[in-house]
UniProtKB/TrEMBL annotation:
Name by which UniProt lists this protein: NUDIX hydrolase
Keyword Magnesium among record annotations: yes
Keywords: Hydrolase, Magnesium, Metal-binding
Domain Nudix hydrolase: 18-148
InterPro entries: DDP-like_NUDIX, NUDIX_hydrolase-like_dom_sf, NUDIX_hydrolase_dom
Ranges annotated as spanning the membrane: none
Cofactor(s) the protein requires to work: Mg(2+)
PROSITE patterns cross-referenced by the UniProt entry: NUDIX (PS51462)
Amino acid sequence: MIKQLPVTLPAAQKGDVRTQIAALCYRVRNGKVQVLLVTSRGAGRWIVPKGWPMHGKTPAAMAEIEAWEEGGVRGRCDGRCLGVYSYSKQIDGLAALPCLAMVYPVEVRDLARNYPEKSQRKRKWMSRKRAAKLVDEPELSRILRDFDPRVRA
């Protein structure tokens, strides 16, 4: 487990790049790695669970929280960041905000039938290759395609 410090949140300016924490939820079945994607609330695009940083929480804890809220995942994050990807987040009535998402692996131990955003999202297990084709962000696609929890750096 990597030692992490809690996040502190300074004030941000309107045009600043925003950071989000993303969870790459995975399991290994019959020797094959599968990842869990969820749909976005608005357009229904396939994404990984992600959210805004929370004051006083570590990135690993935030990845576990987002995995639970958006996908019903009960799992564990070891604290290593797999990479980052950029995208523009559309927020009602505002210009698109530039965002940078830090991706953390969350090993899925259990999937709940009921979870906070169940009525707002779909979730689906798939291969890394299929997931890489379904997401819109090229950098996230590469992270998904290259991810293998069986190989430690």
